[in-house]
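Q: What would this chain look like folded?
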Amino acid sequence: MHEMTPTWRWPCAGPAIRLKMEALQPTGSFKLRGIGRLCAEAAAEGCTHLVSSSGGNAGLAAAWSGRRLGVPVTVFVPETTSAKMRARIGLEGATVRVVGRVWDEAHAVAEAWVAAEGGRTRLVHPFDDPAIWRGHATLIAELADQGPRPDRVVVGVGGGGLLCGVLEGMASVGWSDVEVVAVETEGAASYAAALAAGRPVRLAAIRSVAGSLGALSVCAASVAWAARHPVRSVVVSDAEAVEATVRFADAVRVLVEPACGAALAATLNDPARPADTVVVVCGGAVVDLSLLAGWREALG
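A: My prediction, written as structure tokens:
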């Protein structure tokens, strides 16, 4: 379902930063890799209805995939998902249902819906499924073909699906000693909390403009990976994440969400970054110039 994406150099930061441009996927984010893989496998097994729970990007990837596979899709989103994103999902032919204040509440309703419908209905989890991790792992396989072994890979973390895929991919190409920096924003740092506790913990609420990082708790697999691969948690402010998206737009002429800006900020603001750092530019389909300007003004 996904397309191979290029690896670019950051034009204003010297040769030290490489950008894996997942923002150039057809749906605007990396989600298409893993969600597309899961949907394709489900369709091959005879699935007749795909049910997604999502804050936006995962639902869009499920809707895009379902349309091309000829399988109906229903996407449950929380109230915080923008009208623009709901419309984009609907344009792909999916049914959109708005329930709950945050993704976790929408996901609970989606799970109950699938259980009640039964049959060949398949739940498309946005991040906690081995098929999704296998799909995201293809990102690293491509990166290995596109350039030298990096010293560090930087990735934003929401529920941990992309992180699990990146780590799985690194294991498959033999990059077991390459450091992974897992970045979140303040107010959405469920992975940092999980590493501190040694297990997934549930945040009381999401208080960040980086809505794509808005899972109250990360998947257990992402925490387990930290015991067998060098993973370092970094937390940045919303202001830093938004400012990085502006710098990125100026330099690369591509718009990304603050969730992606978090990984960019952690890289740009690190004077001790190693000689060859790769940032996964995870993208995001909801951002536009007016939103970016509004976030920047609100955060000073």
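The chain is about 45% helix and 15% strand.
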